[in-house]
Amino acid sequence: MAIYLDSNATTKVHPRVVEAMMPFLTGHWHNPSSNYAAGRDVRNAIEIAREQVAALIGAHPDEIVFTGSGTEANSTVIKSLAREIGRRHSRVVVSAIEHSAVIRPVEAMAAVGFEVKTARVGEDGRLDLDDFASVVVDTCPGFASVMWANNETGVIQPIAEACEIAKKAGWFFHTDAIQAVGKIPVRVDEVAVDYLSISGHKFHAPKGVGALFIRRGSPIEPMIRGGGQESGRRSGTENVPYLVGLGAAAALMREEISGGGMARVTRLRDRLEGGLLTGLGEGPDRVTCNGSREHRTGNVAHLSFAGCTAAELLPALDAFGVECSAGSACMAGKSQPSHVQKAMGFSDERAFSSLRLSLSIFTTEEEVDEAVGKIIKVLKRLRAAS
């Protein structure tokens, strides 16, 4: 069986999540808007799931809106705030390392006349707060969007500080927390973000379900109108089994974070990284660890392997039974270097030689040790052939 090291792309649905979902694919199939007992029972299951998601991030249940994906959550916020601030005499600020689910809708805003500014990051992949503060101004309305943790490098951003800067300017603040929620503590009762996006398949729920945190009092313009579900904030008959699954996954990951499960994943990540650095040698002509070593999620190792490209490494590793990626799954197959790594100041050569190895609670010590051996063997073989 292949060793799966691409959990930032997607995660295996947890058996507990499947178990929670199954009754709502069989016996409890009723429409939650129906006004009879069976429908009310299904509606109650949705509200329990809402409570579970809220508990994971320290929110009130009525601040959680279910969506079909993290991308939908991001687009809903950005399009809503575009209407709220208006295109004249306003400004939008994003970081240089945002996911395409933020970049593309913001680019669409720029195309119709919004002023969009991009804040730099340092070589460690962390937001340059001085540069961010220089473009977040109190002379015009605006909003900022900064991801909580980067999808490629795992680097955690200074969200509390960035949010404070935006608030002082009187701006709205959104964070794409898709690669943070379920992996590290994310608390909206401690960091005053207005909006926060979640994607279930990044923490052992199925694909096709997400959530949006909207702080009480924050404006929102529904992107999907219709029957008025989700308190009028996202219409459409609810995907009940998947919402129940999202709630179950949220409860599971809350336990894993508080009970040391994610700390175990961090130890495995360090074992993986350490094994590769020991076996291949650390340095710009051998293996380079990318991004902040201190501020990152515990499941990601992002490494550059001198003398080989990811385009060579990935199929060779796949043939050896190691599944990983060069970065964002959404950018797979693209010929240009990662915009995240270019924003960090990497040369094209270094960017093209980078791999993202991302673990989950299912990863074992035996898999890590086997993966280390296979990666070293493949890399040495490719270097010898070049």
CATH structural fold name of the largest domain:
Aspartate Aminotransferase, domain 2
**CATH superfamily membership of the largest domain:** Type I PLP-dependent aspartate aminotransferase-like (Major domain)
Query: Class of the largest domain, according to the CATH hierarchy?
Result: Alpha Beta
Low-confidence stretches: none
Identify the strand order in the major beta sheet.
Answer: 2-8-7-6-5-3-4
Q: Could you give a short account of the major beta sheet?
A: 7 strands, mixed
Structural class: alpha/beta
Regarding quaternary structure, how should these chains be classified? single chain
The number of helical runs is 12
Please state the CA-atom Rg, rounded to the nearest Å: 21 Å
Mean pLDDT: 95
The count of domains is 2
Helix content: 25-40%
Shape: globular
Based on the structure given, which CATH architecture of the largest domain is correct?
3-Layer(aba) Sandwich
The tally of beta strands, per DSSP, is 12
Span from first to last CA?
29 Å
- In N-to-C order, the SSE pattern is EHHEHEHEHEHEEEHHEEHEHHEH
Strand residues, percent: 5-15%
Give an overview in words.
With 386 residues, this protein is α/β, with parallel strands linked by helices. The protein folds into 2 domains: 3-12 and 260-385, Aspartate Aminotransferase, domain 1 (Alpha-Beta Complex); 15-257, Type I PLP-dependent aspartate aminotransferase-like (Major domain) (Aspartate Aminotransferase, domain 2, 3-Layer(aba) Sandwich), CATH 3.40.640. Helices cover 40% and strands 13% of the residues. It is built from 12 helices and 12 strands. The strands form 3 sheets. The chain has a 7-stranded mixed β-sheet with strand order 2-8-7-6-5-3-4, with helices on both faces. It has a 3-stranded antiparallel β-sheet with strand order 9-10-12. Strands 1-11 form a two-stranded parallel ribbon. Helix 3 (70-85) runs parallel beside helix 4. 49% of the residues are buried. The model has no long low-confidence stretch (mean pLDDT 95).
